[in-house]
Amino acid sequence: MPTPSEDALARLLARTRKSQAAQEEGARHLALEVVPTFSMPTPLYVELASGSRVVDIDGNEYLDLAMGFGPHVLGHRPPAVEAAVKEALGRAWQTAMLNTTQHELARLLKEASPSAELAVFCNTGTEATMYGMRVARAFTGKPAVAVFEGAYHGAHDYALIMDDPKSERTAPASRAIGKGIPDVIGDVTVRVLPYRHEAAFDLIRRHADELAAVVVQPVQNITPRADNGEFLRALRTVCDDSGVLLMFDEIVTGFRLALGGGQEYFDVVPDLATHGKALGGGLPIGALSGRADVMSLLSRGGTKEGVFSGGTFSGNPLSMAAGVAAVTHLRDHQSQIYPYLHEQSARLAAAVNGFCEAEQIPAVLMSAESIFCMQFTAGPIESARDLHPINRAAERAFYLHLLDQGVLVPGVHVFFVSSAHTPDEVDRIIAAFVHSLGQLRAEGLC
């Protein structure tokens, strides 16, 4: 007799035949899909997206919690942003020349983000963190940067260094993610620090002479929590005392935790900050901003005294127009949007965690306002080091049942609520989570 998970998978496979065929066709031409979503119960190719929902090429509709991996604070295709993009399409797409919309978006970023005295635009979060690390090394004259275990800062070489989980927690050894990363990066130019641990401060002090910057996400993607303020404030103090720049990676938290991102939410001002995702209103964008004395090195370009950055599509008219519309709307409606996001997100977290506690299911829905990640492990979670062992069988079955219930969580398992999700839809999401957890219990997976 089939298990509940086997039944759910059979239903999904039966109704996603076009997506399966599309994946087979794509494999003939692509080494990798443009946006890999990692492991999904079945491939999904989206044809339509609007508000809180997406529709796949088979015609199946889902309540979407992927939200483009985070940028859609206002949901898919918010009317104000769509109108701005259509208007910009009628004027210019990409000219490689100056456009004044960059000034407007930079001004909006400066007004919202406490650290943003000057900004530079690029196309992705990966570019933004790469430029941030580069300008920090140039400004300080020091060769290394430090990152935290469990963090993600993009796909460039300096960001693809993580901790070796077999190493001592208080002094993590580093290792590269995948091949092609020169050994010297992990050995010399990137140091890994223990997250939310006093030992990180000791390591910063010990290596202050070589550290240009410490890079931190105000909220980590895989272990989101809203009580990071004390840790971030202590990190700010240690960096100041050690002569090390502090850089916030606000690619996910920017304009999501609050209009001013993690800086406003936790009341900590870094020297540099990276933005993306929500800043572009759903179109490709990245931004590095920060102290004027540090950022001014970029204005000298490729000279001996300057720092080079550049990209043909950086500051392109379409992304700038979308960003201006999105940030303006968030600014003008922040007193309604953020309390609503926090209320609906708190309802979701409380209901799911309450069910897990009542049923003694070893899982927790971690969250920092509208940023979520479900972890199938027992015990308190301070950092990624605490996520072992994970009940992978339960995890896989859970997302399978969610998708079967019409609730889409991406394969990275980090997900988001938007202002487009109605209270009734949040109720439906809660019901789907509870049903899926109940199926795991019935199947003996947790």
Account of the protein in words:
α3 (79-89) packs antiparallel against α11, α4 packs parallel to α11 and α12 (334-359) packs parallel to α14. α8 (229-242) links the parallel β9 (211-216) and β10 (245-249). This protein has helices at 4-15, 17-27, 79-89, 101-112, 125-140, 183-189, 198-206, 229-242, 261-266, 292-295, 317-332, 334-359, 392-404, 423-443; strands at 46-50, 53-56, 61-64, 118-122, 144-148, 161-163, 174-176, 190-193, 211-216, 245-249, 272-276, 286-290, 364-368, 371-375, 407-408, 414-416. With 446 residues, it is α/β, with parallel strands linked by helices. A seven-stranded mixed β-sheet has the order 4-12-11-10-9-5-8, sandwiched between helices. Strands 1-2-3-15 form a four-stranded mixed β-sheet. The chain is built from 14 helices and 16 strands.
Write the layout of secondary structure elements.
Layout: H1 4-15, H2 17-27, E1 46-50, E2 53-56, E3 61-64, H3 79-89, H4 101-112, E4 118-122, H5 125-140, E5 144-148, E6 161-163, E7 174-176, H6 183-189, E8 190-193, H7 198-206, E9 211-216, H8 229-242, E10 245-249, H9 261-266, E11 272-276, E12 286-290, H10 292-295, H11 317-332, H12 334-359, E13 364-368, E14 371-375, H13 392-404, E15 407-408, E16 414-416, H14 423-443
Parallel strand pairs: 3-15, 5-8, 5-9, 9-10, 10-11
Antiparallel strand pairs: 1-2, 2-3, 4-12, 6-7, 11-12, 13-14, 14-16
Helix pairs in contact: 1-13, 3-11, 4-11, 12-14, 13-14
Provide the low-confidence segments as ranges: none
Q: How many H/I helical runs?
A: 14
Strand order of the largest sheet: 4-12-11-10-9-5-8
Average pLDDT: 94
Evaluate the radius of gyration.
22 Å
Task: Give the H and E element order.
Answer: HHEEEHHEHEEEHEHEHEHEEHHHEEHEEH
Oligomer: single chain
